[in-house]
Automatic annotation (TrEMBL):
InterPro entries: Aminotrans_IV (IPR001544), Aminotransferase-like (IPR036038), BCAT-like_C (IPR043132), BCAT-like_N (IPR043131), Class-IV_PLP-Dep_Aminotrnsfr (IPR050571). Belongs to the class-IV pyridoxal-phosphate-dependent aminotransferase family. This is 4-amino-4-deoxychorismate lyase. One of its GO terms (cellular component) is cytosol.
Length: 280
C-alpha cells in the first residue's frame, strides 16, 4: 500500500505519472529527502527530520522548505493510511523543473516497510567495510561535496550495497582511507562496549542520525555512557555489539564484519532495542 500527498494539500495517485521528466531531482539528483518511521499512526522524530530536511536544503542552496506544507502533507497521508501499523514515510524536496519558474517539487509518500528490512531487524546482518575516500576535515574544506547532506544523489550508496552483496554481505560500513569508521549507506553506526555506546562524529562528513540521537537520550537516562568520537575500524571486531541504526531499520545488529564473526550480541541487541523503544 502507498499514500501520496503533494505540498499543495492534495492527495494524488502514487501510480500516476506525476513528476516531470525534466525535474532536477530526476535528471540530476538535485534535491533532498527524509525517511520517517511511523508506528500506529505516530511519526517518530518528525521535528528533527524536518529540521534536517531544512539543513540539507540549505546546503544545496534550495529554497527553504515550507515546513507547514510538509506537516500538512504528513497529516494528510497518515489520515488516509489503512495499511499496517509500521510504515515508512518519505519526504522529498527537489529544485523543480529545468527552465521552470523556480518552484520546488515536494511530496510526502507513505509505504509499507519491506519484509527484507523486517527480517534484518530480527536476525541481524553481515556487513563489509568499504573505503569512502574521504578524510577528517574534508567537510569544512570542500562544502560543495555536500558531506552531511541527505541529498537524492544516492547512486554511490547503492553501488556500495551492490558491492557488499557481491561479497556475500547485506550492508556496508564506510570508512575513511586511514581506517576510521564513518556510517552505513543508509544508517548510522553505533558501537557498544559494556554500558557505553559510541558513534562517530558528524564532523567527519557523515549525516547526524535521528535514531541514534533518540537512542542516546534513552540510554543516558538509564545510566549508560554515550559518547561521540572517532572509531578505528579495528575496535569493531572486538566490540560487545555493532549496530546499524536508522528510522526504518531501527536497531539492527551486525553479526559478521568482513567475513569475521563478531562476538554474540543478541542479548545486548535486545536490551539496546528496548532502550530505543522506551523513547516512545
Amino acid at each position: 500500500m502507498r499514500v501520496l500527498a503533494l505540498l499543495d494539500g492534495t492527495l494524488a495517485d502514487p501510480d500516476a505519472p506525476l513528476i516531470r521528466v525534466d525535474d532536477f531531482g530526476l535528471m540530476r539528483g538535485d534535491g533532498v529527502f527524509e525517511t520517517i518511521l511511523v508506528v500506529d499512526g505516530k511519526p517518530r522524530e518528525l521535528g528533527p527530520h524536518l529540521d534536517r530536511l531544512a539543513r540539507s536544503a540549505a546546503m544545496l542552496d534550495l529554497p527553504e522548505p515550507d515546513r507547514a506544507a510538509f506537516e500538512h502533507a504528513v497529516d494528510l497521508v497518515l489520515a488516509n493510511w489503512t495499511g499496517g501499523a509500521e510504515i515508512a514515510l518519505k519526504l522529498v524536496y527537489t529544485r523543480g523543473v529545468e527552465g521552470g519558474d523556480g518552484t520546488p517539487t515536494g511530496f510526502a509518500l507513505a509505504m509499507d516497510i519491506s519484509p527484507k528490512v523486517m527480517a534484518q531487524r530480527a536476525e541481524g546482518i553481515a556487513a563489509v567495510t568499504l573505503d569512502r575516500g574521504i578524510e577528517p576535515g574534508l567537510m569544512d574544506r570542500a562544502p560543495w561535496l555536500l558531506l552531511g547532506a541527505k541529498s537524492l544523489s544516492y547512486a554511490m550508496n547503492m553501488a556500495a550495497i551492490r558491492e557488499a552483496e557481491r561479497r556475500g554481505a547485506a550492508e556496508v560500513v564506510f570508512t575513511t582511507s586511514s581506517g576510521s569508521v564513518l556510517e552505513g549507506p543508509t544508517s548510522t553506526l553505533i558501537m557498544a562496549r559494556g554500558r557505553t555506546l559510541t558513534t562517530p562524529p558528524a564532523e567527519l562528513g557523515i549525516l547526524p542520525g535521528t535514531t541514534q540521537a533518540a537512542l542516546f537520550r534513552a540510554a543516558g537516562r538509564e545510566g549508560w555512557t554515550v559518547e561521540v568520537r572517532p572509531i578505528p575500524v579495528e575496535e569493531l571486531y572486538s566490540a560487545d555489539g555493532v549496530f546499524l541504526v536508522s528510522s526504518v531499520r531501527k536497531i539492527t545488529r551486525v553479526h559478521t564484519l568482513d567475513g569475521k564473526t563478531l562476538p554474540d550480541s543478541a542479548e545486548l541487541h535486545a536490551e539496546v532495542a528496548d532502550l530505543y523503544e522506551s523513547e516512545y
